[in-house]
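Our preliminary data section would be incomplete without showing what the modeling component actually yields. Below, a chain of 407 amino acids is followed by its predicted structure, encoded as tokens that our downstream tools consume directly.
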Amino acid sequence: MSLDNDFVRAQFPAFRASSLDGQAFFENAGGSYMCQQVITRLERYVTERKVQPYYPFAASKKAGEEMDEARQRIAACLGIETGELSFGPSTTQNTYVLAQAFRQMLNKGDAIIVTNQDHEANTGPWRRLADEGIEVREWKVDPQSGSLALEDLHALLDEKVKLVCFPHCSNVVAEINPVAEIVKTAHAVGAVTCVDGVSFAPHGWPNVSKLGADIYLFSSYKTWGPHQGIMVVRKELAFKLPNQAHFFNGEVAYKRLTPAGPDHASVAVSAGMVDYFEALHGHHFKNSTTPAQMCEDLHGLFAQYEADLLQPFLDYIRGKNGLRLIGPDQASKRAATVSILCQEPSLNISTKLAERGIMAGHGHYYGMRVLEAMGLDPTHGVLRISMSHYTSKAEVNQAIEALDQVL
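Predicted structure:
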């Protein structure tokens, strides 16, 4: 089975927009194009349902039904109970709320573990707990590879550790970490796990139950949907953590960690991401299955397609003088997000690429700590070329040709 890239691209209006004609989009790690299924729902919602939901009049009732539909269908895709899924304005904000809840639950002398491989969203809010007397231990990357070693985690773990926070994969290093193994290791000492899946989920939604994670976070605006954060908190933990919402919402698991009401439209139209998955699965597999299995099927399809795109690009970067590839040089070990240290500041390179129709990122991408740990200057930054399953082989060739001209 191989991915039908033409069918995929037909689901995204951006590829038919005249204003984007001839330009190849390679900053998918910062935010993806939105699929037609989400756009269709968004237009309908803001036109016909843009009222306070859950009242008995028709527009309000339909608004609430669409919000419930989104939560139910996304939860099923992730292999969790509906009540374990929360929506918030962003993953950063969701993590901040979680940190406030843990601040109330932890005691002085307790310890947590964070990494310096993470996006700042899954390290900064947790590090602030040190102000409350919580010991913060840092799981450090290897300064050459940027990798996290399991033996280093073992050295940090003991009965004082109550929480371990780490990324499924870094938005700079992009190496895929062994989540299930890390979770099992943390659970062995009684610690809770918080996994930042923001950089992994765009390459295929995971089955959170199979991973065993207690908390799993990602952002729907990076998975072809609206701008919001999606947060999984397993039910037992959700009720153990102090309520962060209005007191009268304290008995509802998915409301306990949402202090303010979410963007109703963004919640409702998120069901369009599942519509998109169903269209892809139906086109490629021709058989019905459970939502969680559907996502596993698609993840395999995406992974193979992206690896085929990625490996020639990695080989090109590795063989180019004056460039340093950040993270593994094998596509099977990483997500399709490639950070490159160039001799010139990354802003200069991305500007020159933009003149040649290549939309790429520059800077530190809120991963300042990992760059500094690897001896790199965040102000110089790294060029980032990030692909998605809708990226075409022609676009990758266009990027290589443009890099040849620029470098």
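DSSP finds 15 helices and twelve strands in the chain. The first strand starts at residue 24 and ends at 25. Preliminary results of this kind motivate Aim 1 of the renewal.
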